Amino acid sequence: MLIVVRRSRRKKHGHHGGAWKVAYADFVTAMMAFFLVMWLLGVGTKQQRAAIAEYFKNPSMTPGTATMAPPGKMGPGGASDSMIKLGGAMDISHGAGKDRRAATSVAPADVEKLAREREKQRLENLMLQLRAAIEKSQALEPFKDQLLLDITPEGLRIQIVDKQNRPMFATGSAALEPYTVAILHELSSFIDQAPNKVSISGHTDDAKYSTASQYGNWELSADRANAARRALLDGGLEEGKIARVVGLADSVPFDKVNPSDPINRRISIIMMTKQAQDAALSQEQADALPPATLPTPVSIKPLAASAP
Hints:
By secondary structure, this protein is α+β, with helices and mostly antiparallel strands. The protein has a domain at 111-288: CATH 3.30.1330.60. It is built from seven helices and five strands. It starts with 18 loop residues before the first helix and ends in a 20-residue tail after the last helix.
């Protein structure tokens, strides 16, 4: 008897590999993009949605390699490396974006006001630092009552005033006393650390200068201011930082009630603000202009007498 045994052969399936993973990753990426778009449409403003739509209509402001122009645009399109401006424009240098930036920019008056406030705060910090330096300085310890600090519209003012028994200069002279030189040398190192230009002015009391010549308080105050300038330079102050040296005689007394008070005899050193520096420079430039460039004076005609 013949027995036939039939065995079924299992069919071998081809190795599918990881192709399904790629497809699944593409699906997840597409869903993430979809939900991201839906989220943007939900939270974005009307102007932001219009900016995004405009970007995809014409993503490049420069010619590209595409054979067809984007809808509603002229010329070839192309990829863009500009970021989307959610204000409704591709680039701040084109179209409405430039106008919008100009409309939202800070007014020049506000910028100037902010700059002045910052400079005032910087000068106040300088004053605090200088006071601390005076407190720590052994050389300035005996003269604290002769050093006056305050903030003026021109800047941080340092005034060195006379005392009854401790004058800065020899009587009627521009020769500095040795302790006055020490004071100015100590101050010069601090003043030189700041970028501010410096104005130096000399002041006298109202006592008349007793001499038969034309030399008086105006000349004396100017000479004393120059003597202070030389002492500051000897102490290390950079010469280019000195913007102005003037003598004011007794025209700006410290004590207006008592013009003969010794405190009116003083040297004022002002660490100038930027505005004061510019004003001084512009005045110097105006003085240096040739006559042809100066403004023409306007003649004022007298008013005709009215009929009775």
